[in-house]
TrEMBL record:
Record keyword Oxidoreductase present: yes
Gene3D superfamilies assigned: 3.30.70.260, HAD superfamily/HAD-like, NAD(P)-binding Rossmann-like Domain, Phosphoserine phosphatase, domain 2
Protein name, entry field: D-3-phosphoglycerate dehydrogenase
Organism from which the protein derives: Phaeodactylibacter luteus
EC number: 1.1.1.399, 1.1.1.95
Pathway: Amino-acid biosynthesis; L-serine biosynthesis; L-serine from 3-phospho-D-glycerate: step 1/3
UniProt keyword annotation of Mitochondrion present: no
Function: Catalyzes the reversible oxidation of 3-phospho-D-glycerate to 3-phosphonooxypyruvate, the first step of the phosphorylated L-serine biosynthesis pathway. Also catalyzes the reversible oxidation of 2-hydroxyglutarate to 2-oxoglutarate.
Recorded catalytic activity of this chain's protein: (R)-2-hydroxyglutarate + NAD(+) = 2-oxoglutarate + NADH + H(+); (2R)-3-phosphoglycerate + NAD(+) = 3-phosphooxypyruvate + NADH + H(+)
Amino acid sequence: MSNTLNLIIDFDSTFTRVEALDVLAEIVLEGDSSREQVLRRIQEITDLGMDGTLDFRASLEQRLELLRAHRDDIQKLGEVLKGQISRSFLRNQEYFASLSAATYIVSNGFTDFIRPVVAHYGLDPERVIANEFLYDEEGYVCGFNRDNPLSRSGGKSEVIKQLDLKGDVYVIGDGANDLEIRKAGYANKFYLFTENVEREKVKAEADHIAPNLDEILYELKMSRSLSYPKNRIKVLLLEGVHPQAVDIFEKEGYQVEYLTTALTEEELCEKIVDVNILGIRSKTKVTEKVIQSAKRLINIGAFCIGTNQIDLEACSRHGVAVFNAPYSNTRSVVELAIAEIIMLVRNLPDKARAMHNGKWEKSATGAHEVRGKKLGIMGYGNIGSQLSVLAEAVGLDVYYYDLEDKLALGNATKCETLEELLGTVDILSMHMDGRPENNGIFGAREFAMMKDGAIFINLARGKVVDVDALREAILSGKLKGCAVDVFPKEPKSNNEPFESALMGLPNTILTPHIGGSTAEAQENIGEFVPRKIIQYINTGSTTGSVNFPNVQLPPVQSAHRLLHIHSNVPNVLAGINQILAKHNINIVSQYLKTNEQIGYVITDVDRAYDDELLEELKLIEPTIWFRVLY
Ligand SMILES: NC(=O)C1=CN([C@@H]2O[C@H](COP(=O)(O)OP(=O)(O)OC[C@H]3O[C@@H](n4cnc5c(N)ncnc54)[C@H](O)[C@@H]3O)[C@@H](O)[C@H]2O)C=CC1
Ligand SMILES: O=C(O)C(=O)COP(=O)(O)O
């Protein structure tokens, strides 16, 4: 930071989220019957003063006349305002407080309540320039120091002139009285601060509209905080993820674009160029080409369980951390499987269709209880094992087969081979993941191994099953029925038609990939995935990432955090530490974790470092991505 830089910061609606005199009015008028009316009048006068319509001194006099404030009220106001500091000032507190010597708070408010708030934040209260109340003998406010230039219009310019500042002067504020400093020629630039209020009249003449302090620090190249200001982080959400996700990202200060459909590879390549965070569900294919088109991608959020639609290797190679929601819709899939098992064992799809066609087919032929029937589960992961528990509760006898050695829950029986499972069970439910090796894994050979009259359910992925072979198994009577929720080719949105060789088959339930589509599951996912992504962006923690080494990091205290992602080759850590040693940087703590593809080094260092050091770290041979967090 240059030594000759001065920041002039407004207090009301800039340093704090509120107008202090409005809050004072609420304190003074608590319990007063005319409260609402007076409050409204005070706010009107404040606005007229702030957009320059009403002379400032008149606005101040009129507001104070409406209030009979005591010294105790002023003290209380100071306490309330300590909890109302603007979010981006709080976010940057540690760094910003270190700029104390370059910062003045210049306000048409009053030192009496501004100084305690500024001191509480960590800035020098002596560098607050503002009005002063006058009190009567009983301690009530009876006026203000009229000799103070800040008690009249144009006062801020006068004060800055008197300060006779050397070097560059930047004004940060939300009102016409802040703009006037630059207009009078006492500042290089006026940043209109719009985090709390947007005053249209002032907007037109501002040099830069800044939605928060991060933006200003970034613009002034002063930021050692997040490598990127939050309001510049772009999020693209596809496939109608739950609106909760939009809300969470927007509250964090990110820009969000929301689409209800999936995009084709071509459309996505075009849209993703400057996107930092991509959110998808099961339909959007994120290919190597898509990843290469993305110039700023930090994260992909799969708002679902499966991540087979994402080229995870390409993501790792490009330093993109992928998060999913591994448990949020598990229960929903299991409940649908249970429902379908019961429906198919009772021939319900055919019976229901007949009723709609005016046919009454009351008969017990071919209808059974599920109690005592043998259920086979292929893929005993989170969904498979939960189905196992619920299925036993309705009396099914559970068998399972998994590629990995999985603990049998309850009374379930593990099968050593798929053949053993298929030859044993009356109902088979597929719950393996969609890894490429599973494409077409279930076909004519496997159907032939099943018992005659068995039932088949696929809630996993469309590509694992040979659909023509399934059709044949139903038509030949080998299978009594089937339920299919996932298809090799699914429409991109609800506006596209659906086609499948399974349409119109007897005792067949077809559903539009809704295994996880319940309000409960979608809301859970809409909260879970954004939180993981935000945690990664803010702290570097990768807990739950499906392609990055998982590291849970403690919060940083009085240190900078450097994140370094590299191809997993030997000696990178040594290289990083040699550079730090050369620059005399003290390592406060350090973490390294690798997986087959990449290594992730997190180094917390004490405060002093320079741009040269950062450049050298970026140049370490296998660096994929380097980021300074604080
Ligand atoms: N229809 C829908 O809306 C939904 C579908 N799904 C699908 O369900 C899949 C499973 O989900 P989770 O249980 O949470 O995943 P998981 O990863 O916990 O379990 C998958 C299990 O399948 C096993 N497996 C993989 N290939 C196998 C094979 N060829 N034979 C036997 N076992 C095999 C794995 O070892 C693992 O234990 C997801 O990957 C997703 O594709 C998930 C949620 C909703
Ligand atoms: O969670 C999964 O893997 C699913 O298949 C659910 O996908 P969806 O979010 O409904 O597109």
